[in-house]
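Batch job 17 of 40 flagged for manual review because the log was empty.
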Amino acid sequence: MNTNAVMDIGQAALLCAAQLAAPVLLTALGVGLLISLLQSITQIQEVTLSFVPKAVAVALVLVVAGHWMITVIVSFTQDIFARIPGLLGGG
């Protein structure tokens, strides 16, 4: 196994992790921003108010994008397993 193979696997892993985390993180960020804006407009300064809408939004994103997320991680795992013989020098 050479340095380029390790770098390729690391880069692919980071890209896969970013793809899987992006929908959840962007949803939580967007909902948090909207709740903060609503709180500043109404001057309701309750810290726990943003938790429930964020949790519901993240759950909905996981339900909607869950199949795609599983497809991405399974594809990545299959690619890594397919690379094993080449990494060990057998293929």
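Reviewer: the log was empty due to a logging misconfiguration, but the result itself is present. The radius of gyration is 20 Å. Unflagging and moving on to job 18.
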